[in-house]
Amino acid sequence: MEGLIKQAARDLVKSKHAIALTGAGMSTESGIPDFRGPKGIWTTNKKAEAEAYKMYGLFLKDPKAYWVEISGSQGTYRRFYEEIRKAKPNPGHRALVELERRGILKCVITQNIDGLHEKAGNKEVLEYHGSIYKLRCISCGSRFGIEEVSLNELPPRCKCGGVLKYDVIHFKEPIPLDVREESEREALRCDLMLICGTSAVVYPFADLPIMARFGSGRSLLGLYVTGPKTNVKIIEVNAEPTPLTQEGVSDYLIRGKTGEVLPKIVEEVKKTRSAFTAEHNPFLGDQAGEVDCHQG
Ligand code: NAD
Question: How far apart are the C-alpha atoms of 292 and 207, rounded to whole Å?
Answer without folding.
Answer: 33
